[in-house]
Structures are given as structure tokens and as C-alpha cells.
Amino acid sequence: MDNPFIIQRDILFGEPFCDREQEIERFLSAVRMRESICLISPRRYGKTSLLNQVAGKLGELGWLTAKIDFMQALSEIELAKEVERTRVKLLGVWRRAVQKLGKSVKGLKNTKIEVDFEDLHFSMGLGGSNESDGRALLEESLIRLRELPEKAGMPLLIYLDEFQRVREIDPKGNLEAKIRANFQKRSKDFLPMYLGSRRHMLQMMFADKSTPLFKSATLLSLDTIRIDRFVSFADQQFKRSLKGYFPANFATAMGQFFHGHPHLLNKTSAVIWDICLREKIQKVSKDICRRAMTEVIREETDAFLEVNRKTPRRHMSVLRQTAGRGTVPKPYSTEFLRACNLTQSQMQKIIDALVSDDRVLRDDTGLHIVDPLEELALKMIGSTPEWRSELIDRLLEEA
Ligand SMILES: Nc1ncnc2c1ncn2[C@@H]1O[C@H](COP(=O)(O)OP(=O)(O)O)[C@@H](O)[C@H]1O
Ligand SMILES: [Mg+2]
């Protein structure tokens, strides 16, 4: 039996997905208005999974949809290849849709796309391309993608995932200018959506007057999931698969401990589910919850330390002190400077660097850690397994 709690990858349409009805509705109404949205949240909040659900629903309404993942692309030529791969895949989807629906469907204007020699040549040529012509090839691939809805006679939604990569690849913004120039010529049946995890950078890309993509998408934040929704979702999955039972008090305590963090909650549920299957247990107990939570926390903390091996010690100390306090109202106070063992000017430099790296956030109330996953790991560094276990025990005892 497969574990219904999907981890390590985005959740596809049709797979168990918790909450988010409102967000899905918001996207569907944006689609009807042909409004582009840039969805921002820390990593692992479920942005990609959410757009997969939206895309799935649009597929049922006769749309072509595709994700273009910018995460792995390190250069323009790699971006061009990714765009082209997507386009070729879409042609396949379109062909299958035509076969299935036939001419009888009203919305389907075209039933045949002439794939000319030029087009094939372009696609195949990309395989052996080198860096020097990256920009031109990317432009060409974007034009071909943009023209697809007209050729196919079906509207197309693409979601550009980890879109901040564009700025990372080209900090001067020329690439954004190219994308803007291209998308400006789009028909109403070509709709781009943007996703990303670097708030600071994405805000600069879409909300700064001097940048090419200024105002070309509405910025939206994705929040964590609602705890009551998680509680019923988890119980429902246990019922369906194991004919089991996940008591609401434990699920609520877990939801509160992880502050509704989708990845942490789904991953812990996956571990709990696996223990129940292995040990043939139908009712989730306090002990199982504690074991699963302790394991997830340990794994997340180890992963954090591994990724941060090269983070300077001083940066780490500011991060840890901030995480321990939740909010630092006065980061330049003598007390905080002393706790971090820094001078005021050192602190200023470090905070500036951490803000522009999207690791801390400065607002009216003070300094905070941006990513709750990081905050949790920072708090847990150095604590013994026994201490963690006791902490969780106490939490579940009160549940
Ligand atoms: N709505 C949800 N219901 C259940 N699990 C979720 C949900 N959203 C996210 N997750 C969990 O979080 C993980 C990361 O989701 P993903 O869509 O990749 O996030 P992001 O794109 O924001 O980094 C998934 O593998 C899944 O375990
Ligand atoms: Mg994602």
C-alpha cells in the first residue's frame, strides 16, 4: 500500500492535498481575468503543489498547462532547453487531447499543427547548442511557446517555478527585459504565472518601478495551512488507507508545534503512517507521534547544518540568536550585540547581507527569521535527543 502523504516532491493533481480551496479559487478567478500572479512563500509551503492543482482543474476545462522549472537552470541556454522541452511536451499533450476529444468539442479550433522542418530543426539544434547563443535561442524558444495557444486553438497557462532564478542568472535584468518584451506580445490565451521563494528578490522584480517586469503580475503570499484543515485531512487519509484513526488532539498539537507548516506536517504524517502500517496499529498514539516528530526534527536539523556548512560563523550566531528570540525588536542594542559578540558596524553588515539573501526579515516589530524550517532547525541545534523528546512529550501530554 502506498503512503498517502507525499513527501520530497510536489503533489500532483489527484493526489491527497490538504486545504487551499481559497487559494485555488483565487487562481481560477485570476485565470478568468487573465491576470498573472506571482506567488511567494518560503520553500516547501506547497507553491508548486498548489499550481499543480490549479493546472489540473484547468486541464478539465480545456486548457493546456505546464510548469517550467527554473530551479535547475544555471544559464540562458539551459533555460532555453527547459522552455523547449516544455513546448514539445505540450505538443504531445495537445495531440492526445485532440485524439480524445475529436472535432466535436466546440473550444477546439484546430485539430492539426503543421510541425515544419524549421521547427524540428530548432528543437533538435538546441541539444548541441553552446553558451554563446543562449540569449537568442531563449528568445526563439519563448516566441514559439507564446505562439502555441494560437496554433493549438487552446488556451495555455504556464507557471514559471523558482522564477527568481532569472535575476540570479542575470543580475542586471536584461533577461527580464527580454521576457517582458516577449510576453507583452502575447494573445489573451497565453497566461504566465510566477512562483518563487525569495521574497525580497521577487519584490524587486515585480514591484520596483525601474524594472522591466514592474506590475506585470500581482504579488500574492502563500501562508501556512490551517490547522483544523490538517486535522481533518490527516484523519481522512488514515481512514481511507488503513481504516485507521488519527485523534484530533494529537494532530492539533502537531499542527501547533509546526505552526501549520505544510512540509513538516505532511512529512511527520508520512512517518506516522509508516509506523502504523509496519506495526499494524490503527489508532495513532502519543508515543507514535513523539517518535515521528523527533525523527523529522532531527532530519531537518541535520539537513540545515549540512546546507549551512559554509555560512560564516558570525552570520550563524545572529541567525541562532534571532531564532531563539523569535523577534529581535532592537538588533543594535548593547545586549543583542553582546549576545552575538559583534560590534555595531559588523552587525549592520551582517544584517544587510542576511536581508538581501532573504534569510532574515526586518519590519516595524524588529528582526525575524524568514523561513520557519530554518527557524526550527536553528532552535534545535545543539540540543540533545532526550531534550527534544521531552519537549515533544510535554506538548503531547497537554494535548
Ligand atoms: N496542501 C498540502 N497538503 C499536503 N502536503 C503539502 C501541501 N502543500 C505542501 N505539502 C508538503 O510540502 C512539500 C513541499 O511542497 P512543494 O509544493 O514542493 O512546496 P514549494 O513549491 O513551496 O517548495 C510536499 O512534498 C508535501 O509533503
Ligand atoms: Mg516548488
Describe the structure.
The protein has about 400 residues and is of the alpha/beta class. It has 3 domains: about 20-220, 3-Layer(aba) Sandwich (Rossmann fold); about 225-305; about 310-380, Winged helix-like DNA-binding domain superfamily/Winged helix DNA-binding domain (Arc Repressor Mutant, subunit A), CATH 1.10.10.10. The chain contains 17 helices and 7 strands. It has a 5-stranded parallel beta sheet with strand order 2-3-4-1-5, sandwiched between helices. Strands 6-7 form a two-stranded antiparallel ribbon. Helix 9 runs parallel beside helix 11 (about 260-280). The longest helix has 26 residues, at about 75-100. About 35% of the residues are buried.
Question: Which secondary structure elements does this structure contain, and how are they paired or packed?
Answer:
Layout lengths: L20 H13 L3 E4 L6 H14 L3 E6 L6 H26 L15 H11 L6 H19 L3 E6 L3 H5 L4 H11 L5 E7 L2 H9 L10 E4 L5 H16 L5 H10 L4 H17 L7 H22 L5 H13 L8 H7 L3 H13 L3 E4 L2 E4 L2 H9 L4 H14 L1
Helix pairs in contact: 1-2, 3-5, 5-7, 9-10, 9-11, 11-12, 12-16, 12-17, 13-16
Bound molecules: adenosine-5'-diphosphate and magnesium ion (MG).
Adenosine-5'-diphosphate (ADP) binds next to α2 and α11.
